[in-house]
Design the sequence.
């Protein structure tokens, strides 16, 4: 066997990736990660990997790994010429808006997002005229055009903090596009949807479908269970959990607590990563796959690095400039 392939197999084994491979699968994975990491250096590229990607991507080739906030912040600071975004389009657009001189790529033509597709710029303009004077607070899971029509962007990591700051100056705000996250934030802040916060009708196709009634069953079966759910889940489910937040907050909760077991109500990539990071802890599966996130594979990353031209992310400068102001407002308020 090629000695460099052998070394790569050992590196992946040390990361625990053999635990999720069928026999012979690790060698195949290692051949891909080896070539991707070689091409990545050659092209002075940095690979951003969202935690919903599979661990062969997050751990095998990712340079920056995290939630939307961590990746957006990391992209601002990278010295690389090229950003390959293993995530979905709105994340790559955000990276491009923050790094207009860099080349940004997404290794899949199918990396959309149901939340991002739930609202467009014309909808925001109509909302503004229906509620004149109200600030538009926009979840990062939206297109560049929607961000450009917004006053401030939030991620699940900082939405509550940013909204608190907004309510210091406003009695009422518009929050788009996730109706569940908006309702969950309203509950956390003691606000009433419709009266204090205007919501849009968007939802995440992954998180809206979790069944709240299963949580009681799991609690009976696993005494001492800690239930963590993403803020995109419906409020009736959030009412049953121990912790609601973004994936970065959920990972910190796992790290800093000693529950008998953890039930992670979110996309499956997060649980896979958590199991590899904390092999001594017990995890119970209650996850769903995001078809958009999972359209990125090691094979598609390799194809992109060999021929990046079809996958470049472009944002028109006039839109990027206005969207950047709303993103920078988030960094200011979340600091
Ligand atoms: S998990 Fe939901 S919010 Fe995240 S990319 Fe997939 S559809 Fe969009």
Sequence:
């Amino acid at each position: 066997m090629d000695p460099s392939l052998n070394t790569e197999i050992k590196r992946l084994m040390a990361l625990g990736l053999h635990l999720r491979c069928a026999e012979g699968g690790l060698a195949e994975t290692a051949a891909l990660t080896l070539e991707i990491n070689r091409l990545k250096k050659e092209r002075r590229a940095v690979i951003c990997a969202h935690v919903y990607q599979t661990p062969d991507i997050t751990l095998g080739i990712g340079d920056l790994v995290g939630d939307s906030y961590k990746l957006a912040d990391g992209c601002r600071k990278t010295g690389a010429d090229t950003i390959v975004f293993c995530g979905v389009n709105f994340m790559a657009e955000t990276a491009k808006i923050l790094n207009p001189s860099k080349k940004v790529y997404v290794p899949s033509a199918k990396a959309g997002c149901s939340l991002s597709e739930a609202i467009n710029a014309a909808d925001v303009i109509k909302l503004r005229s229906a509620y004149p004077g109200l600030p538009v607070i926009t979840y990062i899971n939206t297109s560049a055009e929607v961000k450009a029509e917004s006053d401030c962007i939030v991620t699940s990591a900082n939405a509550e903090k940013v909204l608190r700051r907004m309510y210091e100056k406003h009695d009422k705000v518009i929050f788009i596009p996730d109706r569940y996250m908006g309702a969950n934030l309203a509950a956390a802040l003691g606000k009433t949807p419709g009266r204090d916060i205007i919501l849009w009708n968007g939802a995440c196709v992954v998180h809206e479908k979790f069944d709240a009634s299963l949580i009681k069953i799991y609690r009976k079966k696993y005494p001492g269970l800690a239930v963590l759910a993403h803020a995109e889940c419906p409020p009736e489910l959030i009412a049953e959990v121990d912790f609601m937040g973004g994936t970065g907050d959920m990972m910190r909760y796992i790290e800093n607590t000693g529950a008998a077991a953890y039930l992670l109500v979110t996309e499956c990539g997060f649980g896979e990563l958590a199991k590899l990071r904390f092999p001594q802890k017990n995890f119970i599966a209650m996850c769903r796959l995001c078809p958009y996130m999972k359209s990125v594979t090691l094979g598609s990353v390799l194809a992109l690095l060999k021929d990046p031209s079809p996958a470049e992310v472009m944002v028109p400068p006039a839109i990027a400039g206005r969207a950047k102001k709303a993103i920078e407002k988030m960094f200011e308020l979340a600091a």
